[in-house]
Automatic annotation (TrEMBL):
Enzyme class per UniProt: transferase
Modified residues annotated as N6-(pyridoxal phosphate)lysine in this record: K574
Organism of origin: Pheucticus melanocephalus
UniProt protein name: Alpha-1,4 glucan phosphorylase
GO MF: glycogen phosphorylase activity; pyridoxal phosphate binding
Known EC number: 2.4.1.1
Complexes and interactors: Homodimer. Dimers associate into a tetramer to form the enzymatically active phosphorylase A.
Family: Belongs to the glycogen phosphorylase family.
Annotated function: Allosteric enzyme that catalyzes the rate-limiting step in glycogen catabolism, the phosphorolytic cleavage of glycogen to produce glucose-1-phosphate, and plays a central role in maintaining cellular and organismal glucose homeostasis. Glycogen phosphorylase that regulates glycogen mobilization. Phosphorylase is an important allosteric enzyme in carbohydrate metabolism. Enzymes from different sources differ in their regulatory mechanisms and in their natural substrates. However, all known phosphorylases share catalytic and structural properties.
A GO BP annotation: glycogen catabolic process
Cellular component terms per the entry's GO annotation: cytoplasm
Record keywords, A-Z: Allosteric enzyme, Carbohydrate metabolism, Glycogen metabolism, Glycosyltransferase, Phosphoprotein, Pyridoxal phosphate, Transferase
Keyword Phosphoprotein found: yes
Length: 736
């Protein structure tokens, strides 16, 4: 490359992110085994396949224009994608609409509209183990006779232009994180990926040496032993009725047998407990789009309710609570309930989340089948989130404990021996400082903002959402600002507060929060009394490639959701392994991070889940806190008066009104504890040696949060396969 006058790093910068998801859940979908499961010696195969949609436009690019978020289409395929290979030979038909006919020789779904699913394969190489798994993404294609059969007979041009209607299915990612929007196109996307994937799985099952030996290959007895389908949230929930449809209508398997096969094959991972995020599709939409699936869901629900009624005679309310069909003005299908009854395993993604799943969200289902419910705490890949993004840190770790940690992150525990080693303490601090200088230079080059690299880099990067409480961070920034102005000569721990993340385009409050952050920055960053003691920066267009730059440079990681709302979080883990300290609530994986490193090595503050529940019973009254806490009152009054929006004094009335009168996430209730805790952060930061010792302890205790551990647990406890740690021989050597 050098001889061609090209620079590898420069080339790397040019490549577009494949932004095919929202926040953590979408990022998790990319964890296609990563080659964690090399074939077993005895059976030569635990292949892992990740399936999804090849969106033409991924999550929007975010621009900030006079402090407001503006969305731009993410044309990520503009210059082509060298990592994918189209596989037209595996193209498959997907059916929509039509009607159901019950005949003597079974049920037929007829008069459907067909869309073709074209697969694109991306290799997912494991780390130095000669294993490559496949991520297969489907793209929608109109069949060549589309709209040319009966309609538009006279209008050939119109008919060809109408191909877009079919191909729109894979056009764009819905940009909502933790929010359900019941749009027909979204339901089409969900069925599209499911129908194509299940045909693919069954084709592979039938043609493999594991498929039944009889000539017609109708033997599906062994299907659950050979295939495991993991449902990443409820978005692919249609896998359950679709597998039933294929087994019963197409393969002529007996209904009860088909149900047993389906349940043994499917497992469901729940990713959120927020009620507004749960998928509840109108029955009327199903009736039109997927009439056979609706019939199957009704039948499955009837079977399920008969069982519940037999176990709890006369408990009508329990039947209502547990039904897959929600009665009401608009009858809806509760996809989470469908997933629970159709799966042999249900898991949450952090211990506290899995407990909430059992004790509240699916309480009735847990009482019915407690053995179904498990926990699988999320993890992150140390290859991307340590080696690739923080080579300096990876190097000094390897120098001390060897390279084993790369594939067995628990080995980071060995760093505990070096917690008092002055050279190592100095090296860790030096790497952090270099990362900070590099990120400061990046900000200056790309966003023309100058920051003080000696300041504390205080970072909150995640999707903008009320439950993640970026507003609490804002109130702290305002409080610090008021303290500096009130006492300019007092010594003060300098901070650069960086907040980044995208707001769903239709989420008014989230967009107001971004405007508030940028407005606060405008005032603070231009106040001569403040100088470089305090800066507030909004990081534009937060995405994986920006995370790889900012996370290694962070000193403080903010994980401050209201207890009981963040299922797990994964950014929290990335910061921990990269040598930032965490300020956070006892929520999601923070709980386990504190358990691993010792609570005294994180800055834990605020209400626990029990306190939040108690406050709900008592009734949360924001005004009470506003009256009692003068610094809080001052901050809110400044926002209200237009101190941060002089050209539009009423700009933030909706935000203040929400905080004062209908704040579901109780920002004020944690304000006092948060400010106090931030004071402790300042105290420790003034003692660089002690700070760095805590950093080392955090890194040393982050081993649990490797995706290798997570995936191994899924394999053993849900999929029923033994992961093998031995690398298969390279292609140039014989296999046995």
């Amino acid at each position: 490359l050098q001889q061609l006058g090209l620079d590898l790093e420069e080339l790397e910068e040019i490549e577009e992110d494949a932004g095919l998801g929202n926040g953590g859940l979408g990022r998790l979908a990319g964890n296609t085994g990563g080659g964690e499961f090399p074939p077993h010696l005895e059976c030569m195969g635990t292949e892992a396949y990740g399936y999804g949609i090849r969106y033409e436009f991924g999550i929007f690019n975010q621009k900030i224009v006079d402090g407001w978020q503006v969305e731009e289409a993410d044309d990520w395929l503009r210059y082509g994608n060298p990592w994918e290979k189209a596989r037209p030979e595996y193209m498959l038909p997907v059916h929509f609409y039509g009607r159901v006919e019950h005949t003597a020789d079974g049920v037929k779904w007829i008069d459907t509209q067909v869309v073709l699913a074209m697969p694109y394969d991306t290799p997912v190489p494991g780390y130095k183990n000669n294993t490559v798994n496949t991520m297969r993404l489907w793209s929608a294609k109109a069949p060549n006779d589309f709209n040319l059969q009966e309609f538009n007979m006279g209008d050939y041009i119109e008919a060809v232009l109408d191909r877009n209607l079919a191909e729109n299915i894979s056009r764009v990612l819905y940009p909502n994180d933790n929010f359900f929007e019941g749009k027909e196109l979204r339901l089409k996307q969900e069925y599209f990926v499911v129908a194509a994937t299940l045909q693919d799985i069954i084709r592979r099952f039938k043609s493999s040496k594991f498929g039944c030996r009889d000539p017609v290959r109708t033997c599906f007895e062994t299907f659950p032993d050979k295939v495991a389908i993991q449902l990443n949230d409820t978005h692919p929930a249609l896998s359950i009725p679709e597998l039933m449809r294929i087994l019963v209508d197409v393969e002529k398997v007996d209904w009860d047998k088909a149900w047993e096969i389906t349940k043994r094959t499917c497992a469901y991972t729940n990713h959120t407990v927020l009620p507004e995020a749960l998928e509840r599709w109108p029955v009327s939409m199903f009736e039109k789009l997927l009439p056979r699936h609706l019939e199957i869901i009704y039948a499955l629900n009837q079977m399920h309710l008969d069982r519940v009624a037999a176990l709890y005679p006369g408990d009508i309310d329990r039947l209502r609570r547990m039904s897959v069909i929600e009665e009401g003005d608009c009858k809806r299908i509760n996809m989470a309930h469908l997933c629970v009854i159709g799966s042999h395993a249900v898991n949450g993604v952090a211990r506290i989340h899995s407990d909430i799943v059992k004790n509240s969200v699916f309480k009735d289902f847990y009482e019915l089948e407690p053995e179904k419910f498990q926990n699988k705490t999320n993890g992150i890949t140390p290859r991307r989130w340590l080696l690739l993004c923080n080579p300096g840190l990876a190097d000094i770790i390897a120098e001390k404990i060897g390279e084993g940690f790369i594939t067995d992150l628990s080995q980071l525990k060995k760093l505990l021996e070096f917690i008092d080693n002055e050279t190592f303490i100095r090296d860790v601090a030096k790497v952090k400082q270099e990362n900070k200088l590099k990120f400061a230079a990046y900000l200056e080059e790309h966003y023309k903002v100058k920051i003080n690299p000696m300041s504390m880099f205080d970072v909150q990067v995640k999707r903008i959402h009320e439950y993640k409480r970026q507003l609490l961070n804002c109130l702290h920034a305002i409080t610090l600002y008021n303290r500096v102005r009130c006492n300019p000569s007092k010594s003060f721990v300098p901070r650069t507060i960086m907040i980044g993340g995208k707001a769903a385009p239709g989420y008014h409050m989230a967009k107001m929060i971004i405007k508030l952050i940028t407005s606060i920055g405008e005032v603070i960053n231009n106040d001569p009394y403040v100088g470089d003691k305090l800066k507030v920066i909004f990081l534009e267009n937060y995405r994986v490639s920006l995370a790889e730059k900012v996370i290694p440079a962070a000193d403080l990681s903010q994980q401050i959701s209201t207890a009981g709302t963040e299922a797990s979080g994964t950014g929290n883990m990335k910061f921990m392994v990269n040598g930032a300290l965490t300020i956070g609530t006892m929520d999601g994986a923070n709980v386990e991070m504190a358990e691993e490193a010792g609570e005294e090595n994180l800055f834990i503050f605020g209400m626990r889940v029990e306190d939040v529940e108690a406050l709900d019973r008592k009734g949360y009254n924001a005004r009470e806190f506003y009256e009692r806490l003068p610094e809080l009152r001052q901050a809110i009054d400044q926002i209200t008066s237009g101190f941060f929006s002089p050209r539009d004094p009423g700009c933030f009335k909706d935000v203040v009104n929400m905080l004062m009168y209908h704040d579901r996430f109780k920002v004020f209730a944690d304000y006092e504890a948060y400010i106090k805790c931030q004071g402790q952060v300042d105290q420790l930061f003034m003692d660089p040696r002690e700070w760095t010792r805590k950093v080392i302890r955090n890194i040393a205790c982050s081993g649990k949060f490797s995706s290798d551990r997570t995936i191994t647990e899924y394999a053993r406890e849900i999929w029923g396969v033994e992961p093998s740690a031995t690398a298969i021989p390279p292609p140039n050597l014989p296999r046995n």
